[in-house]
Each structure stands twice: as C-alpha cells, then as structure tokens.
C-alpha cells in the first residue's frame, strides 16, 4: 500500500510530535542485464522501478538522529548521536539510514541532526534493492536539508559506503546509481570502472511489454560464500591474464584465455567477458528503439550464468524455462544467484499466461509458491513534498 505524502506527514507528526520539513522518495531497481560484471569493473544496465521508498524528514537543533520505519517490527524510534557514531556501530535496519548520515560525515559533509520516518512500497529482499531505495531517499533528504549541495554521483558513493561499512554488505554502486540517476522510461547504462552513467530509452509500456519479476523465495545457504568464491575466481583469472580487471578483456581474448586458464576459471572468465559484451549489445538494441530484441540477450545471459558461472539453481532454471515456454521473449536469473529472483520480458498480453504457467510448474515440482509481478521503469529519486 502506498501512503500519500499527506498521510506520511501525519504519521511523522504522530511519531515525532512535529511536522516534517519535507518528503523525499527513491526507487528500487531491477537489473536488466550485466550480472557479476560490477566488481570486475564492467557494465550493468539496471532501471529504476515504480516502487519506491519515501522518507519524511525534519532538521533538529542538536546532533541526534531519530529514525523509524512503517515496516520495522517495533514502533520505537532508533536514536543515535552523530558525534559519537562509529563504523559498524548500528545494527539492524537502522544501519542503512544512519549509515548514510555517517558516510556523509566520512566524506567531509556536515549533516545536521534529523528526525526520519521511512515508508516503502519496494518489496524487501526480493532482489529489487529496497536497501538502496532506503539509502538514497535518506541521502537526498540529508543533502537538501543540510544545504551541502552534494552531486548525485557522490551520493551514490555515500550510499555504497553506508552499505559496505555500516551494514557490512560488500555491494557495488549499481543499485544506488539506478535509484539516483534513473529516469522514467529509461535504463541506466553504468560503467562500473569509471562510474559514468548514461540514460538509455526503455519504453516498455509503449512497446506493449512488461518485465516480470519471478521471486522464487528461495535463497540457498551458501549464497554468501558462493558470491565470495566467484569474486576470487574473477580476481585470479584477471591476475593470470595479467590485466587489472576482467573488464580489460574482450571476447577476442578468450582463445588466449582458454590456453592459459584451467577449465573452471576459464568458464568464470568467459561469463564476465561475454556478459559485458551482452550489456553493450542490449544498449545498442535499446538505442535503436527495439526493446523486444532484448529477449535473446537475456536467454544467453542466463545460459552463461548457469553453465559458465555456476550460480543458477533448480528453482531459477525452472522459472526461466517455464516462462520461455509460456511465451516470454527472454528470461534470466537476476542478482547474485544461488536463489532469489528471475526476470522475464513479456508482451503485456502474455503476462497472465506466463505467471500462471510458472505458478503451476512450481506447484507440480512441490516447490514453495513463487511471487510473480510486473515492473516498469519509473522516476529517479526526487523530493516529493
Ligand atoms: P534488497 O535490497 O534486495 O531488498 P537487502 O537485504 O539488501 O535486500 O536489504 C533489505 C534490508 O533493508 C531489510 O532487511 C531492512 O533491514 C532494510 N530495509 C529496506 N527497506 C526498509 C524499510 N522500508 N524499512 C525498514 N528497513 C528497510
Ligand atoms: Mg540490497
């Protein structure tokens, strides 16, 4: 349920006893293509979605931060003093918003004390980056209320720092970049080596298309260790190929790599190198206004993650295969793998059939029911009241 700005303002007043100075919203994101390329200095192509997180905020005269969320299990305000905050000191969900204010300080910007109330329509833990939506909404609010005038590219880094050092999750810049630099009807073509971003037209609804998210609701226990192992394989591959990162390798270098690397490392490297090429192909397709042509690239991306990178699961393969059989134009797992969600590009008219087919296939396989819903490219982060 989406609360209106007025409803959230009233709730803020109930919780804090005062009126907010303003409301700021930041969207979640979905990654169209470009998986495990970010930490290899490569390319990703996410887009901001219509689901977003809104924060109502008011400046305080002291240096305290008080934060509450409509989604947090208890209603209590989490309170900290900005002057005595240390890396990793905040536990639980409040580490995200408070981490942003801490990271601003680390980057040399002075943030005033704040009261914050968070509300969100981004599903949590479904691979749509509710975490970045929360960070970016708070970062925009703090930026405006402090008058610091921090450029958005720097706010991306501040969000990442909060997540890396206060929350302790080793994530890249993709999610924050999509949320802060995204725009309605566009994807964000992000170069993770330079941090440069460009908007690429993605008018799915005009083309009669929708992107379905199929959340398998299964995350395997070894997801964290599997992610770390893949990062190590990529580092090793780059070292053996004498390049600073796998980004430096082109598809034409793979023949040489095949001779130098053992079979498994070679397959890991081949995924990253071909995935970077697929992202660039996807951008070409979108620049030519042909979003339906993304389909084969999504299919190839999934095959590469399944066969070369080894991060798919039975549930994700079932979701992808069933969606394709039921008429999806393309489908692939999205996110880090070892569970989580898949995406499927579909004609709007085919979406109900695909959804029913996936639900049926999961039921037949005696798997927990997946959650299937559509997403469309939405606006980037902005002040809303
Ligand atoms: P994802 O970003 O894919 O949704 P993460 O595990 O990275 O999943 O982030 C989810 C966490 O972010 C939640 O467990 C919670 O701690 C925090 N979070 C996100 N949105 C909210 C919110 N609206 N209120 C409180 N906490 C939130
Ligand atoms: Mg996240």
TrEMBL record:
GO MF entry, a single one: ATP binding
InterPro entries: Galactokinase, Galactokinase_CS, GalKase_N, GHMP_kinase_C_dom, GHMP_kinase_C_sf, GHMP_kinase_N_dom, GHMP_knse_ATP-bd_CS, Mevalonate/galactokinase
EC numbers on record: 2.7.1.6
Gene Ontology CC terms: cytosol
UniProt cross-references to SUPFAM superfamilies, sorted A to Z: GHMP Kinase, C-terminal domain, Ribosomal protein S5 domain 2-like
Residues covered by the GHMP kinase C-terminal domain: 285-362
Pfam families cross-referenced by the UniProt entry: GalKase_gal_bdg (PF10509), GHMP_kinases_C (PF08544), GHMP_kinases_N (PF00288)
UniProt entry keywords in alphabetical sequence: ATP-binding, Carbohydrate metabolism, Cytoplasm, Galactose metabolism, Kinase, Magnesium, Metal-binding, Nucleotide-binding, Transferase
GHMP kinase N-terminal domain location: 97-182
Galactokinase N-terminal domain sequence ranges: 11-58
Gene Ontology terms describing biological process: galactose metabolic process
Sections of the chain in a coiled coil: none
Family under the similarity heading: Belongs to the GHMP kinase family. GalK subfamily.
Listed name of the protein: Galactokinase
Species in which this protein is naturally found: Arthrobacter echini
